[in-house]
Amino acid sequence: VNAETEADTAPAFRCGLVAIVGRPNVGKSTLLNRLIGHKISITSRKPQTTRWNLLGIATGPHHQAVFVDTPGVQGRHRGALNRFMSREVGSALVSVDAVLLVIEALRWTPADEHALGIAASGDAPLVLVINKVDRVRDRKELLPFLQSVSAAADFREIVPVSARSGDNISDLEDCIRGLLPEGPALFPLDQLTDRSERFLAADILREKLTRKLGAELPYRLTVTIDRFMESGTHTRIDATIWVESASQKAIVIGRNGAMLKAAGTEARRDIEKLIGARVFLGTHVRVKRRWSEDEKALAELGYTEQAPSHPV
Ligand SMILES: Nc1nc2c(ncn2[C@@H]2O[C@H](COP(=O)(O)OP(=O)(O)OP(=O)(O)O)[C@@H](O)[C@H]2O)c(=O)[nH]1
Ligand SMILES: [Mg+2]
């Protein structure tokens, strides 16, 4: 066997963009983190946790899959923040090579139907990912569910998984690899995301607050980073938490500052793991009335569409 023949039989490198879409809370971000093997995208039990598109890059010896995590598809579009999030979903679907529509096992709701309509709007192959199968006690129940959802659209494949436990993720990975077109890597082989540490730090703090606070408040809250300064021994980060009223501010701070302190400590630990350095995290809470309903305020708070960081 000479070297030339071997080169001819080596599999061609494959690379492509794969959008992850679905209604809020089905586990899109948990799935993205599972697929790239790192916690990049924030997650919580509350809907509308993800607000921006975020790339997660999984690279193997013969492929690079560039996943786009997206905000949950909304039915109603009240407020500028919701509209922004819907635009993000729309832009994630432009020139992708495959779309993963994520739903929850044994549930097919009108919101899923709506998300399907958006996911199927382009011509990229559509894969139905049935997530959270770890919650299904009797796997026999899955079969009739699979049959009924398979009639909903022309899915290239239907793959039941658990993003949380990792169950059946390798089947999904095989399926995705098969959908990537031949082509060179879009990103350096060791890159995990398109987002900066500064961006991820803001999101980590928002995750901790979202998880701790009651149902309505997370939607009224956003985080900006005012300073992100690396020195020899540590990184100094100053963050502002924006809410819409003085009463919300009081809740975020908590009694004697307890809420803010607890969230800040958890966020600092995660940021330290992410950037591999000691972190001093300063937090301030400020009020900007109706920011989530005001396009201009939104843009000031960082809700602008990222220039695509991949050639399109
Ligand atoms: N039991 C179980 N829970 C899961 C699984 N995947 C995600 N979850 C949970 O479902 C909740 C929502 O997960 P996320 O990943 O934040 O969902 P999302 O679709 O990104 O939500 P939005 O960004 O708000 O649209 C979290 O509490 C996750 O821990 C799974 O496979 N099994
Ligand atoms: Mg999410």
Distance between the termini: 39 Å
What is the CA-based Rg, rounded?
21 Å
- Count of helical segments? 10
What number is the mean pLDDT?
A: 94
User: What class would the helix/strand composition place it in?
Assistant: alpha/beta
What spatial order of strands do you see in the largest sheet?
Answer: 2-3-1-4-5-6
- Helix percent reads 25-40%
Count of beta strands = 9
| Helix-strand string | HEHEEHEHEHEHHEEHHEH
Low-confidence stretches: none
> What spatial form do the alpha-carbon principal axes imply?
globular
Q: What oligomerization state is this entry in?
A: single chain
Unique ligands: guanosine-5'-triphosphate, magnesium ion
Largest sheet: 6 strands, mixed
* Beta-strand residue fraction: 15-25%
Task: Describe how the helices and strands are arranged.
Elements: H1 3-9, E1 14-21, H2 28-36, E2 54-59, E3 63-69, H3 79-92, E4 98-104, H4 110-119, E5 126-131, H5 142-150, E6 157-160, H6 169-179, H7 197-212, E7 222-230, E8 234-243, H8 246-253, H9 258-275, E9 278-287, H10 295-300
Helix pairs in contact: 7-9
The chain binds guanosine-5'-triphosphate (GTP) and magnesium ion.
What this model shows, in words?
The protein has 312 residues and is of the alpha/beta class. Helix content is 35%, strand content 21%. It contains 10 helices and 9 strands. The chain has a 6-stranded mixed beta sheet with strand order 2-3-1-4-5-6, sandwiched between helices. It has a 3-stranded mixed beta sheet with strand order 7-8-9. The structure holds guanosine-5'-triphosphate (GTP) and magnesium ion (MG). The site of magnesium ion (MG) has 4 residues, from helix 2.
